[in-house]
Structures are given as C-alpha cells and as structure tokens.
Design goal:
The complex is a heterodimer of chains A (621) and B (293). With 621 residues, chain A is of the alpha/beta class. Helices cover 56% and strands 10% of the residues of chain A. In chain A, strands 8-9-10-5-11-12 form a six-stranded mixed beta sheet, with helices on both faces. In chain A, strands 4-3-6-7 form a four-stranded antiparallel beta sheet, with helices on one face. Chain A has a two-stranded antiparallel ribbon with strand order 1-2. Chain B is an all-alpha fold and 293 residues long. The longest helix of chain B is centred in the first third of the chain and has 31 residues. The chains are: A alpha/beta (621), B mainly alpha (293). The interface between A and B is large, with 48 and 48 residues.
C-alpha cells in the first residue's frame, strides 16, 4: 500500500469502511432516485423533500461549523437570501409586473440565488470571520435577525410582512413535486460531493487544523483568513440554491418564515444527531429528524408549541448525552473493537535512526550578511504589565542562540511577537532583511520562521502523520485543491518522523501521545516548513534525560546543515553545552549577551537569574 | 429641544430597567463563561406569572416581583442542577445550544399555558405620568426604574460585601486559583446561575408593565440584553449598567426620530458594530478567546 493510501485510511472522520456500508448508501440513493417514479404519495414525497432541504443545509453548515469549527446559529440566513432572490426575480423582474419578460426558467433564478448567497457570504464572512467563539456565534444570530428585519421593513421591495407570492411554474401539473424533489436531490448530492472533496484536500485539512488550534495553524503557514472565508462561502452557496427551490415549492414566502432561527437550530440539531465533521452525518441526521417531526405531527398532533418543546428537549439531550453524534460514536466503537488486544505503542521505547535529514534546498544563505533575525526596541504591554520592555536582539545566521531568563521575563512573549501570534505595541522585527512585524503569522512561516510551543500544540484529532504534513510553505489557490497528503509529502513526513524517532507512531492520533513524544512530533512538524530559523520554546521541558541528549544531537545536526536556532530553555547544562551565544532577559529587557562563559560570569545575570551559588564547574561538564 | 430631552429621559428610565434585566446575563457569563440564551424566555416567564397573579388576585405587578424573584431563583437553581452544570467548560457552542433548547421549551410551555396572544398588564397607573415643567415621567417607568435600581443595589452589595460575593468574583477572575484557595467553583456557579436567573423575576415583573408581551417576545429581550452586555463589556456589571442606559436612549431616539419599526434593529446593530470594532465593549477585558496563548 502506498503511503498516501495508508494516510487516507487513517482519516479521523471517515465513515467506517466496509462493503456493507457502501452498499447501504448506494441502495438508499437508488431508492431516493426511484421513489417518485413508483408512487404518487404526496405525504412521503413532501417528507423527503423537506429532509433533502435539511440535508443540503446541514451539509453546508457542516463545512463552516463541523470542519472549521466556527459554530453558526444563523445559517438559515442563506435560505432566506436564496428564497428572496428567486422570488424577487420571479415576481419583480420576470413576473406579472413585467409581462414582456415572461418565460425565464425558475432554475435560472435558482442559479442566481446560489451566486447571490455566495457573494453575501464572501462579504459578511470576511468581516465576521475575524471573531471567534462566543462572539462569532452571537454575530451569526445577529446577521440572521438583521436580514429578517431589513426584509420586513424594506416593504417597497419585499412587500414586507405580507410576503411574496410566486407565480406558479409553467410546467405540466402532472409532474407534481418532481421538479422540487429532483432539484433538491441534486443539490444534496452536490453538497455531499463538495464536503467529500473538501475533506480530501489541503483546504479541508487546513480547516480541521483551524478547528483544532487556529493560532497554531497560522504558525505553520496555513493562510487562515482565506481558508475561513472560503469555507463560509462553500457553506452558503448550495443553501442559497436550495432556498430558491424552496421558495417555488412553498409558492409563498415571508420574512419571519424564511429568516427563521428555529430552522437554523433544526439544521444544527440534525447535524449534531448525524455527526458533526463527517461527510454523511448531516444527511443521516436530516433523514432522522425531519421524518420524526412529520410523523409526530401527523400521528401525535405535535406541532406549534409542542414542537418547540420537542426541539428544545432533543437539543438538550443531544448536547448533553450524544455531543459527537451517531456516525463518530459508531466509528469509535468500531475502532475500539478493532484495536482491542493490540499492545499500545504509547510508552514503548523510542527507536531512532541515525540522523538523516532530507535534501535541504541549497540556498545562498551563507552569502548573505547580517543577522537572520533582528529585533529592535520591541515592546508589549498587557494592561499595566509590560511583558517585553524595549528588547533589542540579533540572532546571527547559523548560530544556536539561547534566550534565558527567569520566569515571567518575557521570553515566550518575545516568541509570540516574532512569530506573529501577538502584535507588538512598539518596535520593529526584521527577518532576512525584511521588516515582518506587520505581516500575518502564516506569512512569517512562509518566509522561514518555525516555532514550537512550551506546552505542545499539536492538532489532537489528527494523526501524527497528518500533523507533520499540515504545514504549508507557501499559499496558492491551486494548492487548496491538492490532495491532503501527496506522495512526496508522505515520504518527507516519514523521513522527518524517522529523524525524530517517531515513525512507528505515524498512524496514531496526536492527542494520544505522551508529552515528550508530542515535543518530538512538533519538532518534525516544524521541520516540514524547511525553516531557516527555528524557535524552540523549552525543548527539554518535561522530557527524560536520554531524550534531552537526543534532542541536543538533533539540534546540532540540523544546525550543521544550516538551520539557525533560537532556544528558550531552563536546563542550564543543555543551554551552556549547546548554545553560543546566550542572551539573558530579565523584566522584559536584555541584560546580557555573549558567550556562555561570559554570561555565567556576569554579575547582573547571577543576580537576576542564575543565583550567586551557581556552580560553574559542575555545569561546564 | 424639549422633545430631545424628553426622549433622553424616557430612554434613561427604560435603561434603568434594562440594566437589571441584563445584569443576570452578564453575571452568569462572567463567572461561568456561559451565554444563557434562555434569559430572554425566563424574563417573559416572569412576566406571565406576574400577569396571572395580577389578573387572578389583583396583586400589583410591581409587588409581584416579591413572588417572581424567589420563584426564578428556584428555576435557575433547578436548571443549573439538571442541565447547565454538565456543559460548563465545554465550547461556546454547547452552552449556547443547550440554553437555546431551554428557551424553546420555555417558549413552548408558555404558549400552551397562556396561548400565543399578546398580553399586557395594566394597573391603574400604567397610563399616568408625573409632570415636571415641560417634561413628563410615566409612573410605570419611574416605579419600575426605581425598583430595578434598588434590586441592582442589593445585588451590588451582595457581590462586594459578602463572602459569597467575593467567592463569585474570585471564580470570575480565575476559576482554578479560586479552587486552590478553597472556593468550590461548582457551588459558586450554582448560586451565580440561580441569582442571575432570579434577576429575571423582578425584571420580568417590571417589564410586564412596560411592554405587551407574548411567548415569542423572548427573542426581542435576548437581543436587547445581549446587545447591552456586548456594549458594556461581557461579564462586567458596571458595564451592563452603562450599556443599558445607552441602549435605552438609543431605542427611544430611534422610535422618536427614525421609526418605531426600526427600534428592534438597534440591539442587533449594536451587537454587530461592537463585536467587530471593539469586541471587549466599553468596560470589559478583551474576550478570552480573542487573546492568543
């Protein structure tokens, strides 16, 4: 099996494999396609039409909220936008008001609805996507209500409260529900295909990385703003088209019914039932929830207030008892069965191949002069606390520079400023002769800055191998559609994992590794960027002494091949044996810079950090 | 000019009531990191209880606060113990969805019990006003604002002067440290949630006199109080007061100078502008998720 195929197999959210399941899906689709041919039952056709609508909406929602992790509670805004776009074209442009223009196909309007929804998503997304967490959820609700109120109040255009009645389609009445049914079935298949395709590409992997840890994703070169906006557009387009179909299906639309938060909530509920972040979960959930609502309506008379209660109870039950949904829960069960009896790799001794880093692209680095990284008068305040207080520092090309100092002296903050996780209040950062303090984090990663974190930050739901191939050295539109893990990348990842001694863990979820193992994987991940400068935040923290020695060997080897290092570390023997020069920070300022010997002898350093009784002989090996 | 001042007076009176209604939401968010979307529905519930008491026994709606406040405290405590406690510490989406579910249930139950029609509480003074020179002060709003300020003052004293208040503020500032010094975050959260919901008791009683309501009105209320705490800074009580006064004035200004039908848009517009331009609001610290590790 090729490396690429193996990775595809270990995808975290793939539907549990097996010929039985594939057959089931195909069978269900054949049934859906043939159903209206064999029966005229309007009741069931209506049920399926609504389930298809929810499946389309759920698939869309799943891209932004399941893959990228940005939970939207206002996704039905695109249903309303699509429905009103189609209705306005049908009534105002081609309808009875303009008799000369009659004859345009409703399906043309549906296409326009998709485009309009996409444009809305692009504009609104590029604004909303700058917020996260609670703010984003609230904003999506606000956007929905704002659109509802605008539609209500702009009555010259939308007829406000009174709604719009669409002209009846011109096709033969014998077709009955067929056009709606097959249009929505087609849209559902398109939505699923889109989700499936996204999930296999670099784009999809970037979205998962954003969901897992957005700042980390940016620090390994993922162009997060573009990814998020594209995901928002992808999540809106088919919902907009479905809105157009739905408007024709209903023949009457009004603002409260179209921009309805309860529909949004039903969509979310359906996906949560089926399984967030899976390709088929939204479809499964829609075909469970919608028939349930219909049946409880006709059999038990549950409608109106009772339906609100039912939805509320279901929402509570799902959030509390089955937060991951049906498909992921089954996958876990299957995986648990499969892996039972196999000895876990965690805790096994690491085996390491002799050092062999892959062909590093020869650059003319050596020819350039001047420091690789230069920081001038950098300042960062948190409220009253000045964490970094006018630090100036130069990291010479080809060195292993240490950054030491007491806790709270601003070392990690300095890293965050250099890699762009935080913006400085004052000062300049220069890398390779280019000023970078205004650049977004992913651009700095592209330029060649890689960094690890004091507390490792891997993408826990991804495998070790996916973690290592996630970094991106550049951004291009074409790259978005490339396969998530290509052959050469898988080979390179394998090589890097062998280098750090973690290749046997390639298929495991990163979250199941120990802390020390995660440190090694994070190093391999950063190496994937082929960085010119690697910033390590306490590489020896929390790992055993043998591993520390190995870590030091790796750093020396990489350095020999031309990589510059900036290392924050409290392990003095390691620092003094490995690094030259050493730079000491205290209270947000550099207090000393020079060779290990000089630094050890500096009274200011002894006073601020090392302590008077610092045993020089012992440390100097 | 007279009209402008009159509009501002009405806005401030309204803002005083809004401050009480928003205080619970901001308190719960500050301590538990949970946005209780059901808060709007609970306000309407208190309003319905007030309405029922007033109609059946003639109890003055503002005195109804004495009944609804302990009732809503119990409701809040019950909700925390049965549901909310399980989603503390989970991502924002879990708490928003759960409390939205609670809101839907409360809305449905109210619709079944009291029907979906518009209700209003009309005590003898509801359409009377005090006059002062050129300006008039509607009695219902004056009384309502006075009671709201009184309840807020009590809440403030509880938060500042009592052990419970210190514990609440400790958990709000740093949950794990509070645990280390012997504060049980779970008990504090239960009491905070109960107190936060209890504010909808007095608040809902007052609101029942100010506006006609129906079960679906909870969307209007949640938008208002969300707008207020977003504007003031989420989690900050003084911020909620400032936000409430500003929003009250913004609403009356919109009604007077633009059109009543755009008034419901004000809170949503405020939410969008503030969250995008200054996510920390007027007094709040920056929202935690906006700060990198």
């Amino acid at each position: 099996m090729s490396a690429a195929a193996r990775v595809v197999d270990s995808r975290p959210f793939r539907l549990a494999a097996g010929p039985g399941l594939g057959l089931l899906v195909v069978g269900a689709l054949v049934f859906l396609v043939l159903y209206p041919v064999f029966t005229d039952n309007r009741y069931y056709q209506n049920m399926i039409i609504l389930a298809l609508l929810f499946a389309v909406m759920g698939s869309g929602w799943n891209i932004i909220s399941g893959f990228a992790g940005y939970v939207s509670l206002g996704q039905s805004v695109f249903l309303g936008i699509g429905a009103y776009t189609t209705a306005l074209f049908a009534v105002r442009v081609f309808g009875p008001e303009n008799p000369g223009e009659q004859g345009a196909s409703p399906f043309l309007f549906v296409g326009i609805s998709a485009i309009v929804a996409g444009i809305f998503a692009a504009v609104v997304g590029s604004i909303l996507m700058r917020t996260r967490g609670h703010s984003f959820v609230i904003l999506t609700i606000a956007f929905l209500f704002v659109m509802q109120l605008v539609t209500l109040n702009w009555s010259e255009l939308t007829n406000g409260n009174h709604g719009l009645t669409l002209p009846l389609p011109t096709w033969d009445r014998d077709y009955a529900y067929w056009p709606f049914y097959y249009a929505l079935l087609g849209l559902m298949l398109l939505s699923v295909a889109l989700a499936w395709w996204i999930r296999r590409t670099k784009f999809g992997m970037g979205l998962i990385a954003i969901r897992e840890d957005e700042d980390k994703a940016a620090s390994v070169g993922v162009n997060t703003p573009v990814y998020k906006v594209l995901a928002y557009i992808a999540s809106a387009v088919f919902i907009g088209a479905a809105g157009g179909v739905y408007a024709y299906y209903l023949t009457f639309i009004d603002p409260r019914g179209m921009f309805d938060i309860v529909i949004s909530v039903q969509v979310v509920l359906a996906v949560l039932i089926g399984g967030r972040g899976t390709v088929w979960g939204p479809v499964l959930g829609a075909f469970i929830l919608e028939p349930m609502l219909e049946v409880t309506n006709t059999e038990l008379g549950i409608t109106g207030n009772e339906r609100l209660i039912l939805l509320g109870v279901l929402l509570g039950l799902i959030v509390l008892l089955l937060p991951r949904g049906i498909i992921p829960s089954i996958q876990d069960l299957v995986r648990g069965q499969r892996e039972r009896g196999r000895a876990g790799l965690v805790g096994a001794r690491l085996d390491r191949k002799p050092l062999q880093v892959g062909e590093r692209v020869a650059t003319d680095d050596a020819a350039r002069s001047g420091p690789i990284l230069e920081v001038r008068g950098l300042e960062k305040r948190f409220g009253g606390l000045t964490a970094v207080d006018g630090v100036s520092l130069a990291v010479e090309r080809g060195t292993i520079t240490a950054l030491i100092g007491p806790n709270g002296s601003g070392k990690t903050t300095l890293f965050n400023l250099v890699d762009g996780t935080m913006a400085p209040d004052r000062g300049e950062i220069w890398f390779e002769g280019e000023r970078i303090d205004k650049l977004p984090p992913y651009r700095r990663a592209h330029l060649g800055i890689g960094r690890t974190f004091q507390i490792t930050r891997l993408f826990h739901q991804m495998t070790v191998e996916e973690n290592v191939v996630a970094p991106l050295r550049s951004f291009s539109w074409r790259q978005l559609g490339a396969g998530a893990v290509s052959g050469p990348e898988a080979a390179r990842a394998q090589e890097l994992l062998e280098f750090v001694g973690m290749h046997r863990f390639a298929g495991m979820k990163a979250g199941s590794l120990s802390f020390g193992q995660q440190k090694l994987v994070e190093l391999a991940q950063v190496l994937m960027l082929d960085p010119k400068l690697i910033m390590l935040d306490e590489p020896a923290g929390g790992i055993n002494p043998t591993l520390i020695e190995q870590m030091a060997d790796m750093i020396r080897e990489l350095n020999r091949q031309g990589t510059t290092f900036l290392i924050v570390e409290h392990n003095m023997p390691l620092v003094l044996g490995l690094c030259d020069p050493v730079c000491v920070l205290a209270r947000g300022r550099t207090i000393c810079e020079g060779t290990p010997d000089r630094v050890q002898a500096d009274p200011a350093v002894l006073d601020a950090y090392l302590g008077e009784d610092f045993a020089l002989e012992e440390v100097a090996r | 000019m007279t009209q402008l001042i009159q509009t501002i007076i009405l806005g401030l009176l309204l803002g005083g009531v809004y401050a009480l209604l928003a205080s619970g939401l901001t308190l719960i968010f500050g301590v538990m990191d949970v946005i209780n979307i059901a808060q709007g529905a609970l306000i309407i519930l208190a309003a319905f209880v007030t309405w029922a008491l007033w109609r059946d026994s003639g109890l003055d709606p503002l005195l109804g606060a004495l009944v609804t406040t302990p009732l809503m405290f119990a409701v809040g405590y019950g909700l925390y113990m049965t549901t909310v406690r399980w989603i503390q510490g989970k991502p924002a989406s879990a708490s928003v969805l759960l409390t939205f579910g609670i809101a839907l249930i409360v809305e449905g139950v109210m619709g079944l019990v009291w029907s979906g029609n518009l209700h209003s509480v009309t005590p003898s003074y509801f359409n009377q006003s005090f006059r002062l020179g050129d300006f008039y002060f509607p009695k219902a709003q004056v009384f309502g604002c006075a009671i709201a300020v009184g309840v807020l003052a009590i809440l403030y004293v509880v938060l500042v002067k009592t052990w419970l208040g210190r514990a609440i503020r400790a958990v709000s500032a740093n949950m794990s440290s509070a645990r280390l010094v012997g504060v049980s975050p779970r008990n504090v959260a239960a009491l905070t949630f109960a107190i936060g919901v209890a504010t909808t008791g007095a608040g809902g009683s007052i609101a029942s006199v100010l506006y006609p309501f129906l079960p679906g009105s909870h969307y209007v209320w949640i938008s208002r109080i969300l707008g207020i705490i977003v504007l003031g800074g989420m989690g900050s009580l003084p911020g909620a007061v400032i936000g409430a006064l500003l929003l009250g004035v913004a609403e009356t200004m919109t009604v007077t100078y633009v059109s009543p039908r755009w008034a419901t848009m004000v809170p949503w517009a405020v939410i969008m502008v503030v969250l995008l331009a200054r996510p920390q609001g007027i007094l709040g610290a920056k929202l935690r998720e906006d700060v990198a590790v």
